[in-house]
Amino acid sequence: MSKVIRIGTRDSELALWQAHTVQKKLNDLGYKAEIVAVKSQGDIILDKPLYELGITGIFTKTLDIAMLAGQVDIAVHSMKDVPTALPQGIVQAAVLERAKTVDILVHKGNLDFLNPENAGTIASGSLRRKAQWLSKYPKHHVEDLRGNVNTRMQKLKDNDWNGAIFAAAGLERINLKPTEFIDLDWMTPAPAQGAMLVVAMEEDYFALDALAQLNDVETEICVAIERQFLRTLEGGCTAPIGALAKYNEKDDTISFKGCLHSLDGKQKFEIEKVVPIEEWKKLGFFCAKEILENGGEALMKELRSQLKKS
Fold first, then answer.
1. What are 242's strand-pairing partners?
2. 3-state secondary structure at position 75
3. Alpha carbon separation from 220 to 196, 209, 256 (Å, rounded)
């Protein structure tokens, strides 16, 4: 195994942690691997909300280009950042075992603002988190919050916001999870939240062989359902769409919860289903279709129009 697998990654602390995790797993299998870090537009342009940047895959595009140009062999991503359609020539090679899917609210000790009668200000750069928060706390204001995890944590300290929403997995991976937080277990996470995706070129059989050994089948199935739900709703990774699939070992079933919100949280469509494991392949599709047919299609049209104008 003299070939060295070049691992492309963003250069944030969290992205590098993910890349080093894959590197170690490959090394443990006897493969040689090195890290190649690149900066994405999503990390550079911090003064605009994600949806205003006009494309999906803002965090993955730079690495896609590096792979297609032959500068790196594989790329590691937070799977929730990856568009549901991969560029031609690039394929899903491994989905690693999933970490926690829950969102958390990092706060400053005083939780009085969570009384529904009180006004409050929290921060998040995610339209999904903002919409679900406003649905539950309509009197609150949500500030836009951009940057990598470290930058966002610093911005929370520097501003007079009551709190900010983060993915628990990201903070835990780089030991940044503070003591003052609460689990937002009522909030439906982003499709594939907590999962890491490794992609490779479709004809790079050496890399594909190596990465196949890292794949976690249970996670792969669950995120496939969630991303199918997202794709069927035709939502980019910036749309206010949540989805979570879980495998239930006891009775060999898959439970699924999906939601679609308006930007202000006032309109919402939710769906929950439990099906036998053998019915997983179309579960995301059927759940999305049900939402679209019950009023979700009109909301999706409205969302596309609003996001286009932004």
1. 259
2. strand
3. 10, 17, 14
Place of tokens 């679900």: 132
How many angstroms separate the CA atoms of 79 and 89, rounded? Answer: 18
The backbone region for 54, taken as left when phi is positive above 0, alpha when psi lies in -120 to 50, beta otherwise, is left
- C-alpha 91/C-alpha 82 separation (Å) is 12
Instruction: Tell me the catalytic residues.
Output: 81
Q: Which has more confidence, 62 or 183?
A: 183
Q: Is the distance from CB of 131 to CB of 265 less than 8 angstroms?
A: yes
Q: 38: which residues sit within 8 A by CB, 6+ positions away?
A: 8, 9, 10, 11, 62, 63, 66
Percent helix, strand, coil in the chain (nearest 5)? Answer: 40, 25, 35
User: For position 59, what pLDDT does the model report?
Assistant: 64
Give yes or no for residue 32 having a pLDDT over 70.
Answer: yes
Averaged confidence pLDDT in the chain = 91
Pairing of strands 90-95, 141-143: unpaired
